[in-house]
Amino acid sequence: LQFTSVPATDGNAVYVSFLLQIQSAPGGTQLLGYLDDHNSSQGSPQAGIFLDSSSRIGIAKKSSSPGFTSPSGLDPGTHLVVVRYLFQSGDNRVDLWIDPANSDYGAVVAPPSLGNVTGGSDPASLDYYQIYTPGTSGGVQFIDEFRVGTTWADVVPSGVPLVGVKLGFTAQPATAQVDTTLNPVVVQVQSEGGAAVASNDVPVTLTLTSGSGTLSGTL
Asked: How is the beta sheet containing 125-131 ordered, strand by strand?
């Protein structure tokens, strides 16, 4: 699968998700699929997703074997697997989520991952996802609802009612010179995962506290 190229810029990410049901586990650790910058077969892909004989999910960064594996095997039910490749200064990182809480589906920022792995030989971009089909030695797994995106929200379900539980600054307080106007401070009602939630016209009251000095203007 070729997608719009995502360049190696700090903070850029590629997310992959799919529903996985394991009918039978492979005899050993086996690739399920991977992200890479090449469309040919890769033995050590940039972001490999693995399944082992204990039905555990693993991830690797430019390696033929997992650098992180889920602590326990998956039961025979259907599971949501999410993997992220994150471009960052230094070695890039691959993260894994399994069955994230539905309260995090609407999150602006991805919740903490189950685990991650870093590695070198970073690509100039990511362009392809390959589903790996090993034949009879790889057991039997069903994959559905395959998604690729550049944000968490692109690859997780939507439509879950969000509940406002906290206030978050979307424009942070900042300092200003004497006799100049402070930039606006914007506060948003958010879900536990950081997604915006409608306040339904419920007023929000903030109390301004300060140290030394004089503040004037409109609150």
From this structure: 2-7, 125-131, 30-36, 47-51, 57-60, 68-69
Q: What is the pTM of this model?
A: 0.74
Q: What is the mean pLDDT of residues 170-198?
A: 78
Write phi, then psi, for 155 (nearest 5 degrees): -120, 5
Strand residues in the chain grouped as ranges (E): 2-7, 13-24, 30-36, 47-51, 57-60, 68-69, 78-86, 92-98, 115-119, 125-131, 140-149, 166-171, 186-190
Task: Provide the terminal-to-terminal Cα distance of the chain, rounded to the nearest Å.
Answer: 53
Do residues 132 and 16 touch, judged by C-beta distance below 8 A? no
How many CA atoms lie less than 13 Å away from 182 in the CB half-sphere? 14
* Contact in structure between 171 and 186 (CB atoms under 8 Å): yes
Give me the count of residues in the chain: 219
pLDDT digits (tens, 9 = 90+) for 60-95: 999 999 999 999 999 989 999 999 999 999 999 999
DSSP state, residue 196:
B
Classify strands 30-36 and 47-51 as parallel, antiparallel or unpaired: antiparallel
